[in-house]
Amino acid sequence: MKKIFWIFLSCFSFFFSLGAFSQNEQKEQLDSLFKALPKSVNDTGRIRTLGQISEQCDFNDILKYSNQIIELAEKNKDVTDLKSKHIFLREKARAYNNTGYYYYTTSKALEALDYYQKGALILEKDSIDGELLNSLYNNIAGIEMQIGKDEKALKTIRKCLKTDIELKKPLYMATDYHNISGIYRSLKNYDSAIYYGIKSIEVREAELKHRKDIEENTLIIYYTNVGAIYLYNKKDIKSSEKYIEKAYVLAMKDKDTASFSTVNYWKGQLLLDKNRYKEAKPYLEEALKYADNNRRVQSYMFAYRGLYEINDTLKDYKKAYQYYKLYKIYADSAMNINIKKDAEVKQLSFEYETKEIATKAEHDKEIAEEQSKQQRQRIIIWFIIAFLILVSASGLFVLRSYLQKRKINKELETKNQLIEQQKKIVEEKQGQILDSINYAKHIQQSILADEDEIKTYLKDFFVL
Question: 448 versus 443: which is more confidently predicted?
Answer without folding.
Answer: 443
